[in-house]
Design a protein that fits this description.
Elements (H helix, E strand, L loop, with lengths): L9 E2 L6 H5 L3 H9 L3 E3 L4 E3 L11 H5 L5 H4 L8 E6 L4 E5 L2 E5 L6 E5 L2 H10 L1 H5 L3 H5 L10 E6 L12 E6 H15 L15
Antiparallel strand pairs: 1-2, 2-3, 3-4, 4-5, 5-6, 6-7, 8-9
Amino acid sequence: MHLDLPHLIYSGPAIDDEPMLAQLPRELRAALRKRNGCIAYLGAIHIRGASLEPSWHSLRSAFEGPAAFAKLYPEVFATDIPFAEEAFGDQFLLRGGAVVRLEAEGGAIDPVAPSLEEFFDRLLTNPAGALGYEPVTGLAVIGGRLEPGSLISVFPPFNLDTDGKDRSFRSIDALEQRAWLADFTAQIRDLPDGTPVNIKVHE
């Protein structure tokens, strides 16, 4: 398995978190030894690395830090490894050898691939199927490329009915967007389908 994915815009720095690397399954550990994470498809997919900095790239931060996904989402187990994310903030988790997807807007967990190797094979052969959208089309909403350390903010979120109104899309700091999505999900998690939701935007 390797991280030679198309349209790279970022390769992770040298490994400086060997203890984190040692906790990973053999396949992921070997891949990160060759390339310590990356951002591919012009920003559509981000593979985290065994690095302490930058924090948005750090696997340790996403796995064990104060903003670890297991702390932000009750649906995520402490043993789930959040090794990757897509441009809109959904997370790919390694759970018991299989890859699952955390829907960041609502907290749902969906199966993606039976193994890490098959997930990366799908990224290479059918990125739209692996990501859930065609990368070029998805990134076109913000001009065609997402800078490292950024995610796409969608307003209103995809899981809200807009009553026919257009959504807006913009690039936003990845850590800020992850926190916003987790807070939004916490507030709507127990609401029945069809419940009116008002979002107050503060400058």
